[in-house]
Design a protein that fits this description.
1 helix, elongated, about 60 residues, mainly alpha, about 30% helix
């Protein structure tokens, strides 16, 4: 994962959360009235590879 995430990574994360909500429903509220965390981790679907760039020193 890059920092900051690329737009497609952000959209992939949002869509993954939506799939979880669609299949499992919204998590129940805890005793303090706040929603409990989902405790999930999403694995990336691709590997980020360094891209070589040309470097010029001086002019």
């Amino acid at each position: 994962p890059g920092c900051p995430p690329r737009p497609e990574q952000l959209m992939e994360g949002v869509m993954a959360i939506q799939r979880i909500i669609d299949s499992d429903g919204i998590p129940p509220k805890g005793p303090d009235g706040r929603r409990l965390p989902l405790n999930i981790a999403i694995e990336p679907t691709h590997r980020v590879r360094p891209q070589p760039i040309g470097v010029t020193i001086g002019r």
